[in-house]
Amino acid sequence: MRPLRRGSRRDRGARRRVDEVRNAVLALAGLLGGALQEIWRAIVFGADAVGRVEVAIARVLSVPLGAVLRGARATLSLLERAVTPTRAVAAVIVSAAIVLAVSQFVDYRGIEIGVPLYEGVEAVAPPPQTGREPTGSAHSYLMLPVAGLALVALVFALRGRWQLGRAISVLGLVAIAVSLLVDVPKGLDEGLAARDFEGARATLLEGFWVQLASAAVLVVTGMLLSRYARLQAVPARGRGRRPARGPRRGRSRWRRGRRGGAPAAGASA
C-alpha cells in the first residue's frame, strides 16, 4: 500500500502546481484585461475631449470662416464677370506695347574689348565694353510709333472693329523684321573698334532681346484679340436682328401668284 500513497502524494503535488500555474495565468490575464480596459477608457476619454475641443473651435470659427468663404465666392464671381479673355489679352497687349516703347531707351549692343585675354574668367571678370548704344538709335526710334499704333488699334478693336486685332499682329511682325534685318547687322558690326582695339567683339544686349520678345507677344496676342473680339461681335449682331413679319410673307406669296398668272388663294377670298 505504500507505493499507492506515494503516487497519490505525487499526484496531489502535481495538481497543486497546475492549480498554482493556472491561478497565476488567470491573475496575469486579469491584470492585462484591467490594463487594457483602463487604456481603452483613456483613449475614449481623450477622443471625447478632442471632439469637444473641435466642436468648440468650429463654433467659434464658423462665423468668420463663413464670412471669408462668402467673400471668396463673391470675389470669384466678380472676377469671372470682369476678367474675360478679351480683356486679359488686351492687358497683355498694353503691357507688350509699353515694354516695346521702353526698350528703345535701353542699350541693345556693346563691343567687348580684349576678349581673348578674359577667356575662362568671363563669368567672374567679363571683358570691358565700349560703344554701347540704345535700341532706338539703330532704326531712328521707329518702334515708338509702332507701339502707339498698336495701342490705337487695340482701342478700336475693343469697340467692335475686331479686324484691327490683325493689324496689331502685323505691327508685331514689322517690329520683328526691323529687329532681325536692321538691328542685328548694326549691332554685330564692330566698326572702328575692331581696328582700334585688339580682340573686339560686338554683342547684342538686353534692349534688343526685350524688343524682340515684346514684338513676338504682339503677334500672338493680336491674333487672339481678333478672334475673341469677333466672337463677341457675332452674338451682338445676332441679337440686333429682327425676325421676319407675317405680312411680308403674305405679300411675297401674293407677288409670286401674280407672276405666275393666277391670283393667290388668299387674294381671291
List the keywords:
3 strands, 269 residues, elongated, 2 domains, disordered C terminus, three-stranded antiparallel beta sheet, 73% helix, mainly alpha, 8 helices
Describe this structure in words.
By secondary structure, the protein is mostly helical. The protein has 2 domains: 20-61; 85-236, no CATH class. Helices cover 73% and strands 6% of the residues. The protein has helices at residues 2-82, 85-102, 143-158, 164-187, 193-196, 206-240, 246-259, 265-268, and strands spanning 107-112, 129-134, 201-204. Strands 2-1-3 form a 3-stranded antiparallel sheet. It starts with a helix and ends with a helix. Residues 262-269 have low confidence and may be disordered.
**SSE order:** HHEEHHHEHHH
State Rg.
45 Å
Total of DSSP H or I helical runs spanning 4+ residues: 8
**Overall shape:** elongated
Helix percentage = over 70%
Mind sketching the topology for me?
Elements: H1 2-82, H2 85-102, E1 107-112, E2 129-134, H3 143-158, H4 164-187, H5 193-196, E3 201-204, H6 206-240, H7 246-259, H8 265-268
Antiparallel strand pairs: 1-2, 1-3
Task: Give a short synopsis of this structure.
Helices cover 73% and strands 6% of the residues.
